[in-house]
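Bumping with the actual sequence this time:
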Amino acid sequence: MDIIEIEEMNIRGAYVIDGFPSVGLVGSIVANYLANALELRQIAVVDSEYFPTVSTIRRGIPHSPVRVYGGEFDEGERIVVFVSEFQPPPNMLKVLGMTIMDWVEDHKCHLVISPEGISNKQSGRLPQDEHYEVLGVGSTPEAREMLKDREVSIFEGGVIVGLSGVLLNEGVNRAFDVITLLADASPDIPDARAAAAEAAVINRMILHDRLDLQPLLEEAEKIEEGLKDIYDKAGREQEIRNTSALPTMYG
């Protein structure tokens, strides 16, 4: 597992966002939105012989499946965002988390934030226009104090799996500030509203409210409208199946 730097950039003191897919694709949605909204530049890729052999083409330009973007969002304040199009298999998460933390420490970054979804919704449930509570977990007393200062409720008990769990544990082991943000998200669909709730916390926590979240909320409405059409069609098709005397076997 290697992080290959393709552009030199001073990221000392940077805030680092983990954008690997999570429940409801919350992490991916947040990371992609931050990279685009803040007009960050690609500075590195994460590569492994065990990663999928794919290249994502955008506007005629090939991109690796795991990319690292960076830039300044305010004078002297920097941010780094990891963006991934795929979920690494469980047996790779430990080494991936350690590689990220090694790189973050080598570059003297300040804080790692991992947006994560909690799979509490019933399967197939559509997102509702409701308030999404965001909870937080910090690896150090300083990280937990930062959450309290930003009025983010502490996640008191439970299990956090995947890369977010690895990063939290590595933060504890290294006495490095790592924060995981948690919001209830649908396990079956991209939950842009949960992502927007966590992006709002990040906006308040480190970006001084400079981010316009309205486009992300509008995207949530588009996702919901499309999903409603899908579920409506699926429901009609199921009714047809239930009322039709079709044979159960096909030759």
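The tokens above came from a reply further down the thread. The longest strand covers residues 66-74.
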